[in-house]
Amino acid sequence: MFKDTKAFSGYSVDDTARAKAFYSDILDIKTKEGEMGILELHINGNNPIILYHKPNHKPATFTVLNFPVSDVEKAVQQLKDKGVVFETYDFENLKTDADNIFRGGGPKIAWFKDPYGNILSVLEE
């Protein structure tokens, strides 16, 4: 039924103008302002991801967007150089190291938040 649809994802922010600055200037993603105040994120090979204004926005408590990269350490450092703060986790099965990278099995991954508290990640392909 849906196997041939061009699905897309979206999540809320409380200020799409500020979101545009973060996603375009810090993450270097092509953005486009759409109808009704929607901000589109255009990532190579995918349908746009939409960010929409929600006055009573509450950040997601889970990862809403993952960015596969070839070198997690390099991506983390580049984002830190731009002022991005990475999450530190210290749970039994989820511990990040001094570089804020999880190396406990599976792909190396590091999590950070957008200015609205939504959780994003970079993970090694």
Written account of the structure:
A 4-stranded mixed beta sheet has the order 1-4-3-2, with helices on one face. Strands 5-9-8 form a 3-stranded mixed beta sheet. It has 125 residues and is an alpha/beta fold. It has helices at residues 16-26, 72-81; strands at 10-13, 30-33, 39-42, 49-53, 63-69, 90-91, 94-95, 109-113, 119-124. The chain contains 2 helices and 9 strands; from the N terminus they run E-H-E-E-E-E-H-E-E-E-E. It has 2 domains: 6-57, Roll (2,3-Dihydroxybiphenyl 1,2-Dioxygenase, domain 1), CATH 3.10.180; 59-125, Roll (2,3-Dihydroxybiphenyl 1,2-Dioxygenase, domain 1), CATH 3.10.180.10. The two termini are 30 Å apart. Residues 5-125 form the VOC domain. This is VOC family protein.
Please describe the topology of this protein.
Elements: E1 10-13, H1 16-26, E2 30-33, E3 39-42, E4 49-53, E5 63-69, H2 72-81, E6 90-91, E7 94-95, E8 109-113, E9 119-124
Parallel strand pairs: 1-4, 5-9
Antiparallel strand pairs: 2-3, 3-4, 6-7, 8-9
